[in-house]
Amino acid sequence: MSYANTAIILAALIAAVGSILVVYFNTKKEQTLQYNQIMEEKYRYMLIMMTCVLDFERRKYFQLNEMVPAESSNEYLARLKEYYYHGLLYCPDSITLAIKQFITQPSRESYILVANNMREFLWKKKTKLSLGDITLIN
Which of 35, 68, 101, 118 is the most exposed place for a label (fewest CB within 10 A)? Predict the structure, then answer.
């Protein structure tokens, strides 16, 4: 086999492997983006329910597409508990524990802890913001 033939075969193999890797990484990237979008929607809905647990009147600011509208903050807390149990399948430990803390003792502090954990999971970034930095004065 001549050097030219070997070079052509080697170039074809490299091109084929390169194409396979490009397709693999593009598919992986697309799957990761879709996964993050799904998780963001689930987390957003959980945060809305948590807001309604803390202040039932704020539900009017959200479009909730509820089949049966909740009539009290306790109903939102019951729904959040169901999401908590479903979340055991897909939430990382830090978020699961933060949601559990919120369910047992609903407060703005525990809400922000959940939101920060969700943010860290979705965007892989830790925050240096303190509770005072984030909290708005009513």
Answer: 68
Using a 10 angstrom Cβ sphere, with 0-12 exposed, 13-18 middle and 19 or more buried, the burial of residue 50 is: buried
Residue 53, burial from CB neighbour count under 10 angstroms (0-12, 13-18, 19+): buried
Instruction: Spell out the domain ranges in the chain.
Output: 34-134
State the Cα–Cα distance between residues 31 and 29, nearest whole angstrom: 5
**pLDDT one digit per residue (tens) for the chain, 138 residues:** 677 788 888 888 888 888 888 888 888 888 888 888 888 889 999 999 999 999 988 888 887 777 777 888 999 999 999 999 998 988 899 999 999 999 999 999 999 999 989 998 888 877 777 777 777 765
Supply φ then ψ for residue 2, to 5 degrees: -85, 165
DSSP 74-102: HHHHHHHHHHHHHHTTTS-HHHHHHHHHH
Alpha-carbon gap, residue 27 to 103, rounded angstroms: 37
